[in-house]
Write a structure and sequence with these properties.
single chain; alpha/beta; Helicase, Ruva Protein, domain 3; 4 domains; five-stranded parallel sheet; three-stranded mixed sheet; 21 helices; 12 strands
């Protein structure tokens, strides 16, 4: 089987990081280390920094608030110095919560088309070592179609869905489906050449191949495969050279009758500055959206995750209690945490820690107390899709146009108001808003928000071209109308 590439982020992990981890385990004890660090963090020690990769913001806040002093002491003991400590979301830990042990040199960047951030060369691993499988995927009304399509790709030698393009919001199971397909194909047809990687990794390797004059080797590796699975395909936005290269790769694989599976945060037509040729190729197959899980699906996710994490937290000798969250607690968590699966996992991790420290089962009252701050922080007032739809309707355009690179007055106003209202009414950062709205830079979001704030401060008249002709309205009246419509919807 051809190697599978995992996006391991920007890091160089070596024996120094391992020594820090060992010292930390000795300092806080094996039980706490097993719960909070063993499978949920990744240590990186380089250039005077100790970077701790975590799967979600909750873990970062929890570890910083409860273990920062111990981490600093362990780092000093292991290295004899005082490296600066930082926490960062590590996408690889979502599906692979194990610390890396191999150093990975940084990839050079080409001046003509630089990646968004430096990344490291990846460790090749067979697809069956990916952590997520379709058997562990919780199926519900929100993802049933995507799951069925994934099963078809695994089951059929010649899938009817080619390419299969899966899109949806953050943390709702897209990567799980993608890894599940790779694992399923590897199990059913072991002889299949499978290549799994992120779009960022594809771009970085392409740039490296250009700089080192190894383009033919790169192309042979990418195109001689039976299943090409690429995550975060929206990363190609604003990268015309990479898009052109991937177009040829896609055509070569497709014409050979081989399978392509792609994952993105947005529909192909809503990815800003994506070439029309690529969009046409993507929509020629099966494009399916994964929606946020409904209440029943969230309940089942809670039950399964709780069974696994609570068993770890409470220890081997207490397995009779492990995972025994009452139905009232399950329903409470599923009702209160509605955004995505990662937030559900964060809430359950917090309950697991409480159960381990208190050595008792979680009651509904305890869950309400423990998760009060977590729920308040995680639950947005509205969702970005609601805002985009409302703003697009008001200004007589579409969400896909807001995501595009068009800059005429009407589209620019709609984009600016969308960014401003998303920043105001959700917990999304500027970078997250930019990615959600056509892979825009976070600075674009900040400029848009300042512009709308200035319009509101002066309550200026706004002019735009609507479907029925010229429109004029005061800035405060526009925001008031949009907020009222969003609240009703």
């Amino acid at each position: 089987m051809q190697g599978t590439i995992m996006d391991e982020g920007s890091r160089t992990v070596g024996s120094g990081a391992e020594a820090v981890a060992d010292a930390l385990a000795d300092r806080i004890g094996p039980q706490k280390y097993r719960i909070w660090f063993q499978s949920c963090t990744r240590f990186t020690l380089a250039d005077g920094y100790l970077k701790i990769g975590v799967p979600n913001p909750f873990m970062a806040n929890w570890l910083e608030g409860h273990f920062l002093r111990d981490i600093k002491a362990a780092a000093h003991l292991a290295t004899g110095s005082n490296p600066k400590i930082s926490f960062a979301i590590d996408g690889a830990l979502i599906g692979d919560r194990r610390r890396s042990a191999a150093p990975t040199p940084a990839s050079p960047k080409a001046p003509s088309e630089r990646p968004a951030r430096p990344t490291a060369s990846r460790t090749a691993r067979p697809a069956h070592r990916l952590q997520l499988t379709l058997d562990t995927f919780v199926v519900g009304a929100s993802n049933e179609l995507a799951y069925s399509a994934a099963r078809a790709v695994v089951r059929e030698q010649q899938s009817p869905f080619n390419p299969l393009f899966i899109h949806g919001g953050y943390g709702i199971g897209k990567t799980h489906l993608l890894q599940g397909i790779c694992n399923g194909v590897a199990q059913v047809r072991p002889q299949t050449n499978t290549l799994y990687l992120s779009a960022e990794d594809f771009a970085n390797q392409f740039v490296l191949a250009l700089k080192t004059k190894k383009l033919e080797t790169f192309r042979h590796r990418m195109r001689q495969t039976d299943l090409l699975a690429i995550d975060d395909i929206h990363f190609f936005a604003n990268k015309p050279s990479t898009q052109e290269e991937f177009l040829h790769t896609f055509n070569t694989i497709s014409l050979a009758g081989k399978q392509v599976v792609l994952v993105s945060d947005a529909h192909p037509k809503m990815i800003g500055q994506l070439s029309e040729k690529l969009v046409n190729r993507f929509v020629s197959g099966m494009v399916v959206k994964v929606e946020p899980p409904d209440f029943q699906t969230r309940c089942e996710i809670c039950r399964r995750f709780a069974q696994r994490i609570m068993t770890k937290a409470l220890g081997e000798g207490k397995s009779d209690q492990a995972g025994q969250l009452s139905e009232s607690v399950v329903r409470f968590v599923a009702e209160q945490v509605r955004t995505n699966v990662r937030e559900l996992e964060g809430a359950l991790l917090k309950l697991a820690a409480f159960a381990a420290l208190q050595d008792e089962k979680i009651t509904l009252a305890a869950a309400q107390t423990v998760l009060a701050e977590h729920i308040e922080r995680c639950d947005p007032i509205v969702h970005v899709s609601d805002i985009e739809t409302t703003v697009a309707t008001y200004f007589g355009t579409t969400p896909s146009t807001i995501h595009s690179s068009k800059k005429d007055r009407t589209v620019a106003l709609a984009r600016h108001f969308s960014m401003y209202l998303t920043r105001k009414h959700t917990n999304m950062s500027s970078s997250e808003i930019g990615r959600a709205m056509g892979n825009k830079n976070h600075a674009t979001v900040l400029v848009a928000c300042k512009k709308i704030e200035g319009l509101l401060e002066r309550d200026e008249e706004i002019h735009w071209q609507g479907p029925q002709g010229n429109k004029v309205a005061r800035a405060k009246a526009v925001v008031s109308h949009l907020e009222d419509t969003i609240a009703r919807g």
